[in-house]
């Protein structure tokens, strides 16, 4: 087993759907772990809670689980719980819980930079379908209109 050097650390919770990771960022108490738990309830796997480590693999950012408490997530008011997990996944999406999406249909996805790579970024949507939309975006992709 080869050790991959850690390139960056983010105060973020990351889950994966079919090997595609979403890193959930935002200030303390913004709902990072809550959104992750909703995604896990839909079938996602926890990569990392609270601290996501990024390494570059084949010129793509990969989130790896820190060695402390693998498969453990904090559920506010409940405590630390064990959940299904995986050791790593390629970063495909960032969700910024510190900003609210105001557009009903954003004209183009926001982009953020992670280790020099452009990654699609969503802002928080205060609606009960948000986790389901993220899960399906990771699993099935974004609709591209016919030309």
From TrEMBL:
Residues 9-85 form the HPr kinase/phosphorylase C-terminal domain. The keyword Coiled coil does not apply. The keyword Transit peptide does not apply. Pfam families: Hpr_kinase_C. One of its GO terms (molecular function) is ATP binding. It comes from the Bacteria. Keywords: Kinase, Transferase. GO terms for biological process: regulation of carbohydrate metabolic process. This is Serine kinase. It comes from Aliiroseovarius halocynthiae.
């Amino acid at each position: 087993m080869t050790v991959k050097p850690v390139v960056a650390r983010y105060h973020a919770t990351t889950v994966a759907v079919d090997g595609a990771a979403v890193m959930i960022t935002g200030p303390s108490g913004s709902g990072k772990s809550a959104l992750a738990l909703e995604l896990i309830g839909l079938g996602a796997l926890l990569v990392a809670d609270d601290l996501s480590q990024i390494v570059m693999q084949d010129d793509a950012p990969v989130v790896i689980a820190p060695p402390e408490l693998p498969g453990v997530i904090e559920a506010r008011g409940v405590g630390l719980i064990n959940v299904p997990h995986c050791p790593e996944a390629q970063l495909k999406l960032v969700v910024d819980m510190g900003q609210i999406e105001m557009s009903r249909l954003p004209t183009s996805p926001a982009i953020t930079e992670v280790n020099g790579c452009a990654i699609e970024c969503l802002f928080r949507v205060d609606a009960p379908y948000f986790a389901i939309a993220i899960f399906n975006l990771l699993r099935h992709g974004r609709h591209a209109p016919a030309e």
